[in-house]
């Protein structure tokens, strides 16, 4: 999905030509067609001959097994400029360096850089729509390719039909495949219906966009029939004559209204369905496209795809039949359903599954992008959420999706923030390792391998401020990804296996371990997302005692191999921020036989789950009187206490609970001796911290007008009169060194179905920590400095799709600083318009008290970065009331607040 306001399968049958005319299709007609083509060329003369594609282009190749593929996704305009001569089409939309405009990337540039893409380990190239576009709608350009003027022509900005054929040929000669992005929901943004238009009066409220270039309407029939004022167009019913979606949670609006102003096609109309089938059959036949990614799949009904793929129309058959006629028995389509589930929920995943399988089990889309997996992975590897968030997602998706291995997965793309916008490099590497060791087709977004942190950034020198190409094959991330793709390719268990989660951390960062099984092949994948070593004890592997697992991969070098013990378990120590992979040694046990450990220590009263409100003492018995015993809470070896048992085996330890903020989470502690490989049964307990209100401050209503008092909201109807950026009250609570901020807003809206429960506002909280040196005064990306001499040490940025925490190190006007974890635990109470943000003591320097800390909070909104400010507001940009549009980017602010 590419918004107008953004910043810039299955095989059927075993014969390719079924039916009584099979021999004629295979032998007679191809010969006749070749003779006719030759005769036409001879009569046409040399000019036409030179314009034809070379006769030996390799356009049509058999389909691969898509489970074994790795896709590289390039936004064509931003990747490589192979032909600068096609950049400026004379419409004023080519402006290098201004990312809302065309930058110059094209099909020839893609072809020239295929060695770079293949060197990364990719086996397929996914490109944004190359079709002829509406280039300008009066406000924005369509450099992304999603605003079709004609679905059957190549846009001159990206090249010619011959350029596209040459790209297909070059890919196929390398053993790679071509994936094209397609749109079935809408054309460009040629008209709008005024908000509030009564049904039946659309003609009186239909308004064309006068600034549309290069044409005022689509040029492909019947999509040119877009003027509801004309009886012929109205009767044809090619479009839904509707206003913009204002509530993305309303199914009727979702399927029938305009998304961000883009002209919504009536896909229930058989004429529309037929022409779209013909349009996308064209690219399969004429270029040799091997797969399609379907943009905005949620905006058309699921049964549309049964028609697109399997229609029996002899003049416009479904795409599966067309593909089989070119030798592709497993043509692949996967849809985009932008839907991210909250932790431990799966309603959005169920919605995605409904686009792959109909209510009676009928085949729809062969695959869908796995957005819920992306969301959970980003939370865990990017923001320090409990690893159980991802563990639960893995378990749910295995149960829910029969075609899980055909669901493309990703760490970032053009519709979400870059991973490195809120994630450390190691967090990104861990996420990539998960991508390569879980079911699904990995998708690599261009520039991730070069460490890009900004959305839709160009790769090539002419469009970059630094004037340098970004195709460095020696870049550490390029090398890392190349190693990970090689790992996946070398071991089928990682491509075809089914995962089982073995252990996960419920209280925060820490261990996540899962087992992949494919036949007799077994691999074990382990992560530690915490910045300290973690003990994973009593890991039940489900393997016979004595089986040996050999090291396959480690982010920091090969881990040690290990043997399953007599209980079918293993005890592992995971280094900080690690990612490790082992594989079962084929052929059974290897090495010494497993020896059962002797009886270990016991904990007094460990059979009962305790509920505590603070630190407490633990006692036990049965420990051998020697050094080396460690009291380990939640696996954290950095805080493990040394325990010295008495001669009679009695021992005691203390539990610190200051970082334990969720009373629903059960914590786990054991007494462990690494040398003896002995441990106690676990002690389980819950913590209910005594939160105390430190301050409670009301903020005036209606003061959300920016630092000058003249700022105004964007004009799109989804903003409405809600004043989403108006803070009404802030309450701060403390429990030792933990902090909870409860921020009541004027209103909470969820019209865009935000993953985190609210939209149209980004909260940014700056926290100054007492007695901590350093700090920064700059407000990164917001064009301002903190008031009253305040300095910040932690900065929390939270919106509907983004929750990130930063340290001040490296912060500047253009850099957010160092991403750290864990980010805030988030809870939204829509009824009271309140957003609750809780930071554990571990995120705030592990201090015993926050007395003297200062907090300053402001509001704006975010779309891959803080939204732009103009002199006058635009549909999704703020206005400053006629000023110079250079002011700080905030609407409302509270603070500085000093904690007593």
Write a concise keyword list for the protein shown above.
900 residues, alpha+beta, TIM Barrel, Immunoglobulin-like, 5 domains, eight-stranded parallel β-sheet, six-stranded antiparallel β-sheet, 18 helices, 46 strands, 19% helix, 25% strand, disordered N terminus, GH, Glucodextran_C, Glycosyl hydrolase family 13 catalytic domain-containing protein, Glyco_hydro_b
SSE layout:
Layout: H1 22-44, H2 46-51, E1 71-74, H3 76-79, H4 107-112, H5 114-119, E2 124-127, E3 131-133, E4 136-137, E5 148-154, H6 161-173, E6 177-183, E7 191-193, H7 202-205, E8 206-208, E9 212-213, H8 231-236, H9 251-256, H10 270-287, E10 291-295, H11 303-310, H12 319-325, E11 332-335, H13 347-353, E12 367-368, H14 371-383, H15 388-400, E13 408-410, H16 425-437, E14 441-445, H17 476-490, H18 492-496, E15 498-504, E16 511-518, E17 521-528, E18 534-540, E19 548-554, E20 562-563, E21 569-574, E22 578-584, E23 602-603, E24 610-612, E25 616-621, E26 629-633, E27 636-643, E28 651-655, E29 667-673, E30 678-679, E31 683-687, E32 692-698, E33 727-735, E34 738-745, E35 762-768, E36 778-779, E37 784-785, E38 794-798, E39 803-807, E40 818-820, E41 825-829, E42 834-839, E43 854-860, E44 869-870, E45 878-879, E46 893-898
Parallel strand pairs: 1-2, 1-14, 2-6, 6-10, 10-11, 11-12, 13-14, 24-31, 44-45
Antiparallel strand pairs: 3-5, 4-9, 7-8, 15-16, 16-17, 17-22, 18-21, 19-20, 19-22, 23-25, 25-28, 26-27, 26-29, 29-30, 29-31, 32-33, 33-34, 34-42, 35-38, 35-43, 36-37, 38-39, 39-40, 41-42, 43-46
């Amino acid at each position: 999905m590419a918004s107008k306001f953004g910043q810039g399968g299955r095989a059927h049958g075993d014969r390719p030509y079924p039916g009584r005319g099979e021999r004629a299709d295979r032998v007679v007609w191809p010969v006749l067609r070749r003779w006719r083509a030759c005769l036409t060329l001879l009569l046409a003369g040399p000019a036409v001959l030179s314009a034809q594609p070379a006769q030996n282009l390799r356009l049509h190749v058999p389909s691969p097994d898509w489970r074994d593929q790795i896709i590289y996704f390039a936004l064509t305009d931003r990747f490589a400029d192979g032909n600068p001569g096609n950049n400026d089409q004379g419409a004023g939309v080519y402006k290098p360096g201004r990312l809302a405009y065309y930058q110059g990337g094209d099909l020839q540039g893609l072809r020239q850089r295929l060695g770079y893409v293949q060197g990364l380990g990719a086996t397929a190239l996914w490109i944004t729509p190359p079709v002829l576009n509406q280039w300008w709608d009066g406000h924005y350009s369509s450099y992304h390719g999603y605003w079709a003027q004609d679905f059957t022509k190549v846009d001159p900005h990206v090249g010619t039909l011959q350029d596209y054929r040459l790209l297909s040929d070059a890919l196929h000669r390398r053993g790679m495949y071509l994936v094209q992005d397609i749109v079935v929901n809408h054309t460009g943004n040629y008209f709008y219906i005024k908000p509030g238009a009564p049904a039946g009066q659309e003609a009186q409220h239909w308004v064309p966009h006068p600034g549309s270039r290069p044409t005022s309407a689509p040029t492909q029939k019947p999509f040119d029939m877009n003027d509801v004022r004309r009886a012929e167009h109205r009767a044809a019913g090619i479009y839904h004559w509707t206003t913009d979606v204002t509530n993305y949670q309303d199914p009727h609006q979702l399927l029938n209204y305009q998304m961000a102003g883009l002209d919504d096609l009536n896909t229930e109309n058989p004429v529309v369905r037929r022409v779209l089938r013909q349009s996308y059959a064209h690219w399969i036949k004429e270029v040799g496209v091997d797969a399609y990614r379907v943009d905005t799949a949620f905006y058309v009904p699921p049964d549309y795809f049964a028609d697109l793929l399997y229609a029996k129309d002899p003049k416009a058959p479904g795409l599966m039949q067309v593909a089989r006629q070119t030798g592709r028995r497993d043509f692949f389509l996967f849809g985009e359903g932008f839907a991210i589930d909250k932790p431990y929920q799966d309603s959005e995943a169920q919605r995605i599954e409904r686009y792959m399988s109909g209510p009676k089990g009928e085949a729809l889309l062969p695959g869908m992008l796995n957005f819920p997996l992306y969301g959970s992975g980003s939370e865990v590897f990017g923001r320090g959420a409990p690893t159980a968030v991802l563990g639960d997602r893995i378990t749910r998706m295995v149960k829910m999706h029969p075609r899980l291995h055909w669901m493309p997965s990703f760490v970032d793309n053009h519709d979400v923030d870059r991973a490195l916008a809120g994630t450390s490099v190691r967090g990104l590497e861990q996420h990539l390792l998960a991508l390569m060791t879980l079911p699904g087709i990995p998708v690599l977004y261009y520039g991730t391998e070069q460490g890009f942190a900004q959305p839709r950034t160009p790769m090539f020198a002419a469009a970059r401020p630094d004037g340098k190409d970004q195709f460095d094959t020696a870049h550490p991330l390029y090398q890392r990804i190349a190693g990970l793709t090689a790992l996946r390719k070398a071991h089928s268990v990682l491509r075809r296996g089914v995962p089982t989660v073995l252990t996960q951390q419920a209280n925060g960062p820490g261990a996540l371990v899962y087992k992949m099984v494919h036949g007799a092949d077994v691999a074990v994948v382990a992560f530690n997302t915490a910045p300290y070593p973690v003990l994973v004890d009593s890991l039940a592997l489900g393997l016979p005692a004595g089986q040996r697992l050999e090291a396959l991969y480690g982010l920091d070098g090969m881990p040690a191999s290990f043997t399953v013990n007599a209980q079918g378990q293993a005890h592992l120590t995971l280094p900080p921020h690690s990612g490790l992979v082992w594989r079962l040694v084929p052929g059974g046990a290897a090495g010494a036989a497993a020896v059962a450990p002797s009886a270990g220590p016991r904990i007094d009263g460990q059979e009962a789950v305790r509920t505590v409100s603070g630190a407490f003492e633990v006692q036990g018995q049965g420990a051998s009187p020697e050094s080396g015993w460690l009291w380990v809470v939640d696996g954290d070896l950095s805080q493990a206490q040394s325990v010295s048992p008495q001669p009679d085996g009695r021992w005691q330890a203390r539990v610190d609970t200051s970082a334990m903020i969720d009373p629903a989470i059960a914590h786990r502690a054991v007494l462990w001796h690494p040398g003896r490989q002995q441990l106690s049964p676990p002690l389980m307990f819950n913590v209910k911290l005594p939160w105390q209100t430190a301050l409670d401050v009301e903020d005036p209503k209606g003061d959300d007008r920016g630092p000058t008092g003249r700022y105004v909201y964007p004009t799109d109807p989804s903003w409405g009169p809600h004043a989403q950026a108006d803070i009404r009250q802030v309450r701060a609570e403390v429990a030792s060194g933990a902090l909870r901020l409860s921020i009541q807003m004027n209103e909470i809206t969820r019209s865009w179905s935000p993953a985190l429960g609210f939209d149209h506002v980004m909260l940014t909280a700056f926290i100054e920590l007492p007695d901590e040196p350093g700090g920064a005064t700059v407000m990164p990306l917001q064009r301002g400095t903190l008031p009253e001499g305040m300095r910040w040490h932690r900065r929390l940025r939270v919106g509907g799709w983004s929750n990130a925490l930063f340290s001040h190190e490296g912060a500047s006007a253009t850099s957010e600083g160092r991403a750290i974890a864990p980010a805030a635990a988030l809870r939204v109470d829509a009824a009271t318009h309140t957003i609750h943000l809780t930071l554990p003591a571990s995120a705030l320097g592990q201090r015993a008290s926050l007395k003297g800390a200062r907090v300053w909070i402001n509001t704006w909104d975010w779309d891959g970065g803080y939204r732009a400010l103009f002199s006058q507001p635009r549909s999704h940009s703020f206005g400053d009331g006629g000023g110079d549009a250079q002011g700080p980017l905030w609407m409302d602010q509270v603070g500085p607040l000093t904690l007593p």
